[in-house]
Amino acid sequence: MFFGPLPLRELEGAILAHSVRRGSVSFKKGRVLSAEDVTALRDAGLTTVTVAKPGPDDVGEDAAAARIAAALKGQEITVGAAFTGRVNLFAESRGLFVPDVERINALNLIDESVTVATLPAFAPVEPGQMVATVKIIPFAAPRGAVEGAEVEASAGMPALRVAPFRPLTAALIQTRLPGVKDSVLDKTVAVTRQRLEAMGGRLVRDSRCYHGEAALADAIAAAGRVDLLLIAGASAITDRRDVLPAGIERAGGVIEHFGMPVDPGNLLLIAHIGETPVLGLPGCARSPKLNGFDWVLQRIAAGIPVTRADVMRMGVGGLLAEIPSRPLPRAGTVAVEPPRAPRIAALVLAAGRSSRMGGSNKLLADVGGEPLVVRTVESVLASQAKPVVVVTGHMAEAVSAPLAGRPLTIVHNPSFADGLSASLRAGLAALPADVDGVVVCLGDMPRVTPQAIDRLIAAYNPLEGRTVCVPTVHGKRGNPVLWDRGFFAEMAKLSGDAGAKALLATHADQVVEVPVEDGGILYDVDTPDLLAELRG
Question: Where does the MoaB/Mog domain start and stop, copy by copy (predicted)?
Fold first, then answer.
């Protein structure tokens, strides 16, 4: 790949290496320069510009990242769209993140241009949480490096997957000695139930018996059939021949391992009775704070076998005594939300009067056997934007009728005659409070593809100053536009029929232009001629 300054005559098709601001020109790095851009640079007085030019043996950053992410993807993982050489991968379900550490390390050693970053192995994840990101460092990667990464990622089982938590049933037995308060045992039951339910499991029964070998064996026999048996002793297990392991063996169980290099959690016992796993709990399991018991319980709940070797490999990172990552934060601490997919909603503005169409409502025009508005909405529904809100106004019932049965919300704007801003206001008011942003779509743009919307969502990143995402084709801006929720209050104060377009200039520093291969972002059906062209 070429990187360096080039004269203007050689710039067309090159990638801008650094942002350029001079006079009326404001181009951000990563822009693929068009002939019009080169003319603008010349008019601004520039003679050379630093650019990157991929060669025939290079793969563009977005294509390279998308190919590697697709090869890495395994069970219960969703791949986002590529933008600026980055593709994020997200968990589809609650469970444990399981990367093939050796293969990820090998992939990262192939070439400095190709990088994969992940959460730690066996990290518990929630649906929508980011688990990994593929980033191409320069503007392109060598084709051989990309192909080598694909081979490494595809060798055997997928290199990245999520093992979903299963709905385990569990029984808890607590032994007791004279003087032990019922409140202590009751708290253990509550904490254990909370742990299991957090992973979709259930504590189906709990019982208490004397802290003795024979009494414990009898309690185990009476525990019934469950997926997991948990035993908490009145005193900590200090040896393989102590009361809890002896009682388990007397009940027909086999001790697999005692102890673990995790603190708190050292005194954990792993056993089995027939096919049922049995855990002898360390004293710290009575507390909701993170400990070694949680790590083993999570793996069992996710259907991942836990062997002696697995336990003894937990030492690195196993010093948990003073870290802030706990299921129930201490008083005064602030829980940090893990990286996740942005919650981006979609507004489809379908309230207009079609004043340039000669009296008919263009949204109801038949296009290939369906009303035009249906084609627009189906494209939005096929994107990653959720939820979808459709704002109606003129001929509201007629516009709403063909949308019935689809997973969307319809909001009526009685003030539709006041212009686009009134519909925008009605739509914003209907959005859930937890959305991070919204893609504002026009109901008369049926050629906008789901991929274009997904690319806007991939570009959105408030931490990097990308809070307004505008699609472009050959440098021309189009619709829809993605807005961060920080602009909602300003958008709600707009008036007239111009929508939020005026805010783009006001907040130019927050705007990112997102190149797409979708001419539909420039195509709105405003006239009978355009409708005829669409039908053709």
Answer: 171-302
Is the pLDDT at 410 greater than 50, yes or no?
Answer: yes
The residue with greater pLDDT, 28 or 298, is 298
DSSP string spanning 381-394?
HTSS--SEEEEEBT
Exposed/middle/buried for residue 45 (C-beta within 10 Å: 0-12, 13-18, 19+) = exposed
Distances (CA, A) of 428 to 411, 413, 465: 10, 12, 22
pLDDT in tens, 380-406: 999 999 999 999 999 999 999 999 999
Tell which residue, 132, 148, 145, 157, has the closest CA to residue 80: 132
- Check residue 308 and give its pLDDT: 95
Q: pLDDT per residue over 125-149, tens digit each?
A: 999 999 999 999 999 999 999 999 9
In degrees, rounded to 5, the angle at the alpha carbon of residue 16 between the alpha carbons of residues 13 and 19 is 150
Q: pLDDT value at position 533?
A: 78
Amino acid at site 480 = P
Q: Is the dihedral of CA 410, 412, 442, 89 positive or negative?
A: negative
- Classify residue 62 as exposed, middle or buried by CB count within 10 Å of its CB (0-12, 13-18, 19+): buried
Proportion of the chain above pLDDT 90, given as a percent: 79
Can you tell me whether residue 274 is helix, strand or coil? coil
Cβ neighbours for 205, distance < 8 A, ≥ 6 positions apart: 171, 172, 223, 224, 226
- Integer Cα distance of 291 and 260 in angstroms: 11
End-to-end CA distance of the chain: 42
Predicted local distance difference test score (pLDDT) of residue 199: 95
Question: Which amino acid type is present at position 346?
Answer: A
Cα→Cα distances 43→21, 23, 33, 35, 432, Å? 13, 9, 15, 13, 46
Residue at 445: amino acid letter: M
Whole-model pTM: value is 0.82
Rounded CA separation 299/292 (Å): 11
Which of 488, 489, 470, 490 lies closest to 480 in space, CA to CA?
470
Q: Is 79 helix (H, G, I), strand (E, B) or coil?
A: strand
Q: Is the Cβ–Cβ distance between 200 and 165 less than 8 Å?
A: yes
CA 238: distance to chain centroid?
43
Give kind and range of the element (H or E) at residue 443: none
